């Protein structure tokens, strides 16, 4: 059985668990999310996307 989940959903669950169980403050999670949005508009965005896709492919076993 294959389950397909968007990466943003998985990251959201991890963020919620960190806030709930690890005591991470909400404002810290918001700052990290804003940093990600700002980082996506820089020259590093293509490298981050390629690295993320490669990592997901390795985890899924679809590495070419």
What does this structure look like?
By secondary structure, the protein is an all-alpha fold. It has a domain at 19-47. It has helices spanning 7-21, 26-39, 45-60. The longest helix has 16 residues, at 45-60. The two termini are 22 Å apart. The model has no long low-confidence stretch (mean pLDDT 86).
- Whole-angstrom Rg: 14 Å
Order of helices and strands: HHH
Question: What structural class should be given to the helix and strand makeup?
Answer: mainly alpha
User: Regarding quaternary structure, how should these chains be classified?
Assistant: single chain
- What is the strand content? under 5%
| Largest sheet features | none
pLDDT averaged residue by residue:
86
Low-confidence stretches: none
Helix content: over 70%
The termini sit apart by 22 Å
How many helices? 3
**Form type:** flat
Number of strands: 0
Protein name: DUF4175 domain-containing protein
Keywords: Membrane, Transmembrane, Transmembrane helix
Organism: Streptomyces malaysiense
């Amino acid at each position: 059985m294959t389950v397909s989940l968007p990466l943003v959903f998985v990251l959201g669950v991890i963020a919620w668990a960190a806030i709930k169980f690890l005591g991470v403050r909400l404002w810290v999670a918001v700052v990290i999310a804003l940093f990600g949005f700002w980082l996506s508009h820089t020259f590093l965005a293509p490298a981050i996307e390629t690295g993320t896709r490669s990592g997901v492919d390795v985890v899924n076993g679809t590495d070419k």
